[in-house]
Design brief:
heterodimer; A: about 130 residues; mainly alpha; about 75% helix; elongated; B: mainly alpha; 3 helical TM bundles of succinate and fumarate reductases; 4 helices
Chain lengths: ~130, ~130
Amino acid sequence: MSGSPSSMRTPLGRVRNLGASHSGTTDFWRQRLTGVAMTLLIVPVLVVILTLVGRNHAAAAQILGSLPIAIILLLFIIASTWHMKIGMQVVIEDYVHNETLKLVSIMANNFFCFVVALASIYALLKLSSGV
Amino acid sequence: MTARIERPLSPHLQTYRWTLTMALSIVHRATGMALYVGTLLLAWWLIAAASGPSAYANLQAFTGSFIGKLIVFGYTWALMHHLLSGIRHFVWDLGYGFKANEREALTWAALIGGIVLTVLIWIIAYAIGGGR
């Protein structure tokens, strides 16, 4: 059918089931999912940030620690760090062709996004607990 | 390994006439990369708030400086542009807006809208924060 040498189909085009990455379109879907989530969250997030412009530490800490605001920011942080992890991985896969360097870059990307997410989440939880 | 088939290759970027959608596709990716690094600022802000008054004062000294304001202004534009450009991608994902004039209109809307929203946000920020 498509296996003859004269075929124009690529090996990728003949790949079965979830393909070489074994995850199919998961990342494609998650990138859209997190993108839509941030589109919905952007207005409340901007309101929170604008509310804090020019305020001192005591006021900022109190506002950031309030329940609805902390939840809005937590949701935004989870969506954005996930979104940027997928986005950067696409860029790495496009431009880094050396297999080892690609692996290292993808690993560093995961570490960076996870650290930014965890640090931000921890800071928000600390503000919420008022310690 | 399968035997390699000699297929025609598509020409690379420099062969094509530059179009608006092409340039803005690159800008979408570039703003995404800028926002990636920019989240450090967001994380710093939250960590500083959780750490105490002196850490928060350090952050405010940075964001209040000329270079700090420039970075936050750039971050605002990157975020607003990437947002609108991303919404444009959602429209395309749903199968709409592929006609030549529609593509161009969506792309111009993202470009102009991103700049307008950025300026608007900063006007609001100055109106609110200026008095504090």
